[in-house]
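BUG-520 | component: ligand-complex export | severity: low

The export step for xanthosine-5'-monophosphate jobs runs without errors, but we want the raw record kept on the ticket for reference. Input record follows.
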Amino acid sequence: MSLDQNLNKILIVDFGSQFTQLIARRIRELGIFSEIISHKKIKNKDINYTVKGIILSGGPLNVYQINKYSFDKKIIQKGVPVLGICFGHQIISKLNGGKVKQSKHREFGLANISKKNNSLLIKNLFNKKKSIKVWMSHADQVSKLPKNFKIIASSQNSKFAVVENRLKNYYGVQFHPEVTHTENGKKLISNFIFLICKMRKNWSSKDQKIKLIKDVRKMVGDNKVICALSGGVDSSVVAQLLNKAIGKNLHCIFVNTGLLRKNEEKQVVATFKKRLKINLTYVNAEREFIRKLTNISDPEKKRKIIGNLFIKIFERYAKKIKNVKFLAQGTLYPDLIESRSVTGSQTSKIKSHHNVGGLPKKMKLKLVEPLKFLFKDEVRKLGLELNLSKEIISRHPFPGPGLAIRMPGIITKEKINILKEADHYFIQALRDHNLYHKIWQAYAALLPVKTVGVMGDNRTYEYLCLLRAITSEDGMTADFYEFKKSFIQEISNKIVNSIRGINRVVYDITSKPPSTIELE
Ligand code: XMP
């Protein structure tokens, strides 16, 4: 499935910047559709009538490493307005006869730029101020401006911090307007797309809903689609979207692994089967999972067992539904973007992630991935547009292997029950104190150590409960959340006093890196 070929857009050519996705998000937040394409893949013919503007991203390369084979100059010679950001700015200069060299003073972090000339690109950016703060991150810079380019703003170290060639519709900025540290950065992007590219808004959750429902109907026709529902945001939005599009031809399967949060299976059935009337098969596989996990304590083994068993059970039930042609998955846009391939770097495998995606290859089903052009925040907004509750949409992420990886050591039914209770009290306390939505992810874990305590006049010898609560943008990096002493004290008392089996609570204050968010 692809997005409407006729939708006007801003095309972002990715040269490997860590901020490329942010550029696309900023543009979409402004109500305009944007797509990212690698500089290695873009062809001259991609610049068709729907492309109303081109943005060349930043990147780790040096402009002299980009030869004509890896980036065709004609791409920016079609009269479509072009904005170059950092490396993109240097490329525009180089391709037009300017020069780029290593800066004497590298600029990383905040710098002040001051206005030298008027331009649509900086309209209302400076207001009455003489200078604004921008976020720089570069080692090279333009050292000689090509002919017919004008300086719009300069910083102390970058004379050509903002430049333009009005005639050719070229604009360049040495800093990163897409990051929030740049003052009025979004305004600059907005000036580019509305004043220079003259675009009209075409991207809202309502537009997406209507379009995606139409696309799904066109793609699957009268055929049946299966979907593994986990109750998490992505699979919930996919299920509800398909429910609206094809109703009873959608068959969702929800597998209760016994490793879910307290009452989660009841909530999923109540929401999807009872409230939203989705065609849902509930599979209680609790016993099978516990049996397979008996005496397993190695984290990777746990993950593999759970992932494989999940697929086996899913297939078992999917086969009972006759004439299925499609499998729906909640793949998101960041999964598709190959920006990291620009530098060729590959991060080593830390954990083998498992979720309901990637299922099941053997069945030879065609994939329906309606969210594959959306970012997570867009999926959330679409979910609300589809009538899913805020409760489902803004839930903290929950890993596929569930409580198994929050319980280092062996897994027993007794430990699962203790952990479910502790986690429930913790999450409830976060909600009661209006902290839940300030935190990106929080959970309780049960550590495989017993320690001594005293309750009343009696000695106890029970498990250690670990609480983790982090703030994050995307789960790639994270920091621990700083609770007030009174809150942490209250929840510690609640857990120890209410749950038999736990007599001590600790709070995890490591960030990611060096730790990961989950324990295993
Ligand atoms: P880590 O522990 O790798 O977690 O720092 C980053 C984010 O990913 C989630 N996570 C998973 N999600 N299947 C998933 O769907 C998995 O196997 C899995 N392992 C970790 C984790 O909860 C956090 O949000």
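Assignee comment: Attached the raw record above. The chain has three domains: 7-196, 205-393, 412-507.
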